[in-house]
Structure formats: structure tokens, C-alpha cells
Fold this protein.
Amino acid sequence: MTDHSTKAPVAPRRPHSFTRHGITVQDDYAWLKDARWQEVLHDPTLLDADIRAYLEAENGYAESVLGHTAPLQKKIVAEMRGRIKEDDSSVPSPDGPYAYFRKYREGGQHELFCRTPRNGGAETIGLDGDALARGHEYFKFGGSRHSHDHKLVAWSADTKGSEYFTIRVRDWDGGDDLADIVEETDGGVVWSRDCKSFFYVKLDDNHRPMQVWRHKLGTKQAEDMLVYEEKDTGWFTHVHESTSGKFCVIAGGDHETSEQRLIDLDHPETPPRLVAARENGVQYSIADRGNELFILTNADGAIDFKIVTAPLASPERTNWRDLIPHRAGIYVLDHDLYSGHLVRLERANALPSIVIRDLKSGEEHAIAFAEGAYSLDAMGSYEFDTTNLRFAYSSMTTPSEVYDYDMVTRAKTLRKRQEIPSGHNPADYVTTRIMAKADDGTEVPVSLLHRRDFKADGSAPLLLYGYGSYGHAMPASFSANRLSLVDRGFVYAIAHIRGGTDKGWGWYLDGKREKKTNSFDDFAACARALIAANYTSAKRIVGHGGSAGGMLMGAVANRSGELFAGIVAEVPFVDVLNTMLDDTLPLTPPEWPEWGNPIESEKDFRTILSYSPYDNVVAKDYPAILAMAGLTDPRVTYWEPAKWIARLRATMTGGGPVVLRTNMGAGHGGASGRFNRLDEIAIVYAFALWAVGLADKTA
């Protein structure tokens, strides 16, 4: 790579070790975790001076390595911005006398929440995100929900990047906020039917959503009523409105088990009623219609989930009856309910479909599409008593399309096609899918996007994106931003590795805990398959992942770094062992079902120690690495990538360079505002182009 005049910072080693289960682990960069980290999340100015100096030195070094790509970054931002319809708006969603929608103004960074009379007419703006963001370095909406009488809108925002959201209530017509201020919440709100109170979830000091409260309008937060408190620190609690709108659903769970309670919104003061008691490993979610619950669950060994019904009056497990039985390999992701229809989203072989069931006749039909790889989502509705289903479709070549679908007549109406103002011709691109064979013979799908004039001679650079944790599937959906790489000759590939649910829930189970390394090996197998098929060559591939996908990047760098020219790890979860050993961290107890509990279990300790990227850095050549962090990130704390880069630089024998870029004013999601986020994507793409030697040729 280029010679750099600025020398890479060297983090001092401060000997530190600990022993657990008789195993001693050396951690000489533990000092990068500020002893007062909880206070730093709330107020970044409190960061220890030594740590700040080191992070700023790393930022200076990152600038020296990548600063020459600034004109390229600028050009990429301009391209990406040119593909954004600046005054974009969502399709209005009807609710009683009004239709609600979100839009942006030309040049605006933040959303506006608006409505018109149901059948058209003058629009009014209830919330102006640009105005609300003024004076804040960081601003992010948490949620907004209008009241049932359409007079008020409850809204929340985070102005620090710490993911603590403050709820306020605005008079829709007057435009002023009421005196009510409810702080330290997760941002969500469920209104009572009389619009005099609402339910919300409060986050504790460890950023865990453990308590549901009811706030009465016109009173102080100190007078709010505690409605429910979760005692298990490994569980997260959220609230949402039920499908019929009759209940506030308190949904609790971890990655393996769940439990739900219902509060009657006509009688918000009544205590919540349990649906079915938690049973380890059993997950369920409910939809309601009349006197019946429709429950999506993995009970009775239904690995890919099934749908059962139960009477609302006695919904416990013994009364569950199969409606849609379990079918292995056909994963039921989600279900939604309308007065006459049950809608479910299914995925088989990494391809989704929407299945609609007429609840009177029991007759079913599916909505599916012909492309080789695509994404499909049901979009929900404010209204229960409707035959209209709204869904979104896209593929890696086809911009997003929103349809209204009549579930009775089966008529499909295109309501919106994503506009690309600077122009986009889907025929110029090809999306396809190949299967990579993993070491154990498993077939791993890879979705690909490239220009039609691409030649499969092995010379093309390729960006390989992966995640592979928590059962999150990676949809083969459209992204206008990717075209900035693809138009410069890159192939863009998504590896649908184990640990996600791309091929069903079993696909997830095969990539977690003691099987976690399957995710890493699958990713390397995808890289090798792409090389074998002449899409690219070794050292022409740039790996990209964020958060748990950043852990994937760290593990892949250690295990098969020789395949890659570069690796981008955004807010990477790389210090897995130390984080899972610290039960005061916000996400640690809820994460034990995913990774194992190394505090209690020696087996889990050894498993995590065997792959944790930070603990497995070795003396060998590494590809160029860009790690990106956010100082106030409560999920992947800033010190994880900082420690990882420090150890890499001290240990590796060649290759690189390895670069750390910490956003000193942002959290897990990076910069706020739709255009500011483009600056960070441009850095990733400029790094990818630079890693394969194209940064100066394509500017």
C-alpha cells in the first residue's frame, strides 16, 4: 500500500490479566475502556484524557491514510445524493378521517410527519424533523404515534446518540408541545383509547428496557404508574398496539424465549394479563381478532414456526390449536391480521413470499415474484377492518415498489416506485444467485449484483457483505448507494451465511453458540466460491460487516485474511469474551443465549475464547482493515474496536495498514441525518476502492 508520512499510533501496553475457570487471559489494552464508561455514554466530555488522546491520534492516522481519497469521497457522496429523491414522501396510510405519511423537504436531513384528509386535500405538518434537530449536533426520531382522536401526536427523539429517547406530546393543530416530558425511554408509545394516557418503556441505568409505565397527560413523569417490571436482566421488554387496536401488548423476551401480556386500552388502569407463561426455548407473538388470538410460535418442536389459535379468554398453552402446521424448511417470519384475513410472510431457500388466508373459507393464495433474488415486506396498516394489504418489493436491480393489494379481488395497484433522480436503468445490471459449498457440504446462497457488461475473468474487485447473527436474514433488496461501487467495476455480493434465518430457523441455530464458527467458515467458503466462478480473485475481495457482522469481519481476518484485499468492520463486536464476562454492560445478559455465558460455563468460556477476534489476533500478515466506532454507542462500545486495532498493530507481521476511525459525536447507527450518513458510507466505499488499487483511477 501507499507509504504514509504519519506514523501509526502505538497504544501503550499496560499489563492486565484475569483468570476464570482456571484459564488466564492477557488483556494489555483493557485500559482503553474508561472506568466511568456509563457516564461517558451520557456525556462524552467526561472521557479520560489518555483515552481521548489515543482515539484522536488514531483519527489523525486514519486521515493520513485515507485523506487523499477526500475528492473521491466527495464525488461518491454527490452520486449517492443524486440518487435520493430529496423531497421524497411515503404513500399516505389511511386512518379514519385522515391519511398519514412521512416526507422530506428538498435539502432536508430529517423526516416530516404529515397528514391530509383521507380522500385528499391540504396537508398539515405535525412534526418537522429539520426544525426539531436545529441546535443539536445529533438528532434522531425514536417514534411517533397520533392519538385515536387525531388531536395529538406523541413523538420521541434522541439528541446524543446514546439511544435514550425523550417523549413529548404535540397538539397537532396548534403545533405546540404540551408540558409533558418523559425521559430515558426506548422511544415507543401506545395510546389509551380515551387519549388521556399512554404506555412506554423506561430504560434503566444499564440501558435495558425492563419497565413499562403509564403516563397520564398533564402530570409529571415522577407521578407515572409502574405497570410491569421484568425481573430477568437478560430479557428486553417492548410495547406495541395489537392488530385490532384493542390492546397494548407487552412483549418480553431474549433471543430464545418470549412471553406476552395484554392491557385493555379501553381500561388502561387494569393490570396486564398474561397470555402464556414463559417456557425456556419457546417463542411466540400474538395477533388478535374478536375473541380469538392467532399466535406465531415455535412450540412443540416447530423449528420453522407455525401458527396456532387460542381463545382470548383462556389463551394458555394447553388451549393452543394448530391452524398453519409446521412445515420444515418453510420459515414463517411474521404474521399480520385483518378483520377477514390472516397474512403471513414466509421464506424458503432465502426467497420470501406473502401468503393470504381468507378466514371465512380457509382458502389461501400467495404473492411471489420471478426474479432470482428479491426482497418482500408486508407494511402493516393503521386500520384493521380493511381488505387492503400494502407491501413493498425490491431486488438488487429493481428499486423499491409499494403496492396496494386487494385481498378479495387480488387486484394489485402500484402506489409508488422509488425514484432515482440521477437515473437508473435496471437493464444495465444483473442480479443472480450462486451456491457456495461450505467445508461440511452445506450449500450457502450468495446474492450478486454486477453491471451487464461485466466479464467473468477473475479481474473484477468484489465487495462481500455478511452478518450471520441473531437470526437476521440479509434481504436481497435494492440499495442505490451500492451503485457507486458497481458502476466502478465492483461486483456486490451478499453472503447468506448460517447464523441468519435466510434458509429457516435451523439455519440460525447452526450458526450460534458452539456452532458460531460455521458463520465464519461459510463467509470464507462464499469468497472461495466467487473466486472459483471467476467473479473475482484472491486479494481482490473487500469484506464488509457491521456490529455482529463486524465480529464476523474480525474472525475472518484472523482465519482467512489471505483471501481479502481489505476488510471494513463498522462498530465491530470484536471483544466478545470480555464483553460477555461483564454483566453490567447494557447488552450482556440478553446476549448470553446467543453466544453463551462464559461467567457460569467453562465450556462457553472456551468456545468464545477460541474465536473472539480480539483474543485470536496472531503474528501474520493481515489485509488492510478499516474499523469504525461511535463514542456514545451503547451496543458495541467504542473500546472494542480500539482495543482490537491496538492489538492488531502490535502483533501483525505485515500487510495492513489497520485504521481506526471513531466518530466522537455518534452512537451505534453512525451519523444522524440522511445525508450525513452518506459521508460514512463514502468513507467505506473509498476505502474499498483504495484497498484494490482503484481509488486514484476512478475518482
